[in-house]
Amino acid sequence: MYIYADNAATTKISESAIAAMLTCMKEHNGNPSSLHSDGQDAAEILDKSREEIAQILGCLPSEITFTSGGSESDNQALVSAAVIGARKNKKHIISTTFEHHAVLHTLEHLKTQGYEITLLNVSEKGMVDPELVKESIRDDTCLVSVMYANNEIGTVQDIKKIGAICREKGVLFHTDAVQAAGHIKINVNEENIDMLSLSAHKFNGPKGTGVLFARKGIRLTNVIYGGAQERGKRAGTENLPAIAGMAAALKESYEKIDEVTPHIIKARDKIIEGLEKIPHSVVNGDRNMRLPGNVHMCFEGIEGESLLLLLDNRGIKASSGSACTSGSLDPSHVLLAIGRPHEIAHGSLRLTIDETITDEQVKYIIDNVTEVVTYLRNMSPLWRDKVNGIKPFYI
């Protein structure tokens, strides 16, 4: 059996996205910046895509900037807010310890430029306390950046409340919504969001394209210099086929959310319930406030890499955490942030499913993960020491 359960890393491109891209590549070859009819034809496709995405997010088309993906959008959002803050002598930025590295590494860079960074701790369940955000805001705070949904453990934050606090305090609020967009309905106005990042390949669109929403009045700072595309704030000829594909994928994803989400949640909960029966296992992240398709577990006494390879041999495509750090031997910073010991963090498994999951596949996942965990433990001297009482159990 073949089961793709790594949708948090990337999703299969949808037929609607492919169709939109093919139409662009075959029929709309002009450069959107050209004044001739072919160029204006391409510009019309670009404008239509911008309008469709803006309508879904609840913002103005002029507030949408097309980028190469979530990482670029995060970078530009944080750098822009930092520059705005510096003009007002405000150089304090608040974020959290379990953000994506696109945010954390940008903050590390800003720290070298004289900015003070406060990284808030999260709860054991992977939740950000809005009151802690409120208490941490200072007179010199220029930005709060809290991810909408965590890319590893899938926890969904109270973005509306955090945004309201920032609005009340007069502080810009950015959210990395790369994992949430297309899977949760988002309205930037209702949720008090000033800047938002998303990436097409997380909701069945093409890789290499994304969006930065920035509320009207926020002056973006360039991170790519060159031509005057995207109102002069993102140089480079727009990737029209990818942008059209992204708009089509996002529209399709939002239109079917209400229909497919209950099925995904039901399958997710069945998998969690089945895997929890494995002794010395634990669910990572809040059981309810999490993305519909996210299952994240730790199993004591095993190495996640071995688990993934053996599951792959059985047709189950999974991960241990972020695809952006899959080559690292260090334990996940997200799991460390929620208090998992290094040893436990190394034995993690992330399964991210979509609406195509079947009851048969759910059972296959539970049965095979259980068998592989048992097999790995039986091979492990460390596990024998734990069973014999020589070393303690953590879970």
Detailed description of the structure:
This protein is α/β, with parallel strands linked by helices and 395 residues long. The chain has helices at 15-27, 37-57, 70-87, 101-112, 130-136, 159-169, 240-275, 304-313, 333-337, 342-345, 359-379, 381-387, and strands at residues 3-4, 64-67, 92-96, 116-120, 141-145, 172-176, 195-199, 210-214, 281-283, 294-299, 316-317, 348-352. The chain folds into 2 domains: 3-9 and 258-387, Aspartate Aminotransferase, domain 1; 15-253, Type I PLP-dependent aspartate aminotransferase-like (Major domain) (Aspartate Aminotransferase, domain 2), CATH 3.40.640.10. The protein has 12 helices and 12 strands. It has a 7-stranded mixed β-sheet, with helices on both faces. β5, α6 and β6 form a beta-alpha-beta unit. The two termini are 31 Å apart.
Produce the secondary structure layout.
Layout: E1 3-4, H1 15-27, H2 37-57, E2 64-67, H3 70-87, E3 92-96, H4 101-112, E4 116-120, H5 130-136, E5 141-145, H6 159-169, E6 172-176, E7 195-199, E8 210-214, H7 240-275, E9 281-283, E10 294-299, H8 304-313, E11 316-317, H9 333-337, H10 342-345, E12 348-352, H11 359-379, H12 381-387
Parallel strand pairs: 1-11, 3-4, 3-5, 5-6, 6-7
Antiparallel strand pairs: 2-8, 7-8, 9-10, 10-12
Helix pairs in contact: 1-7, 2-7, 3-4, 5-6, 7-11, 8-11
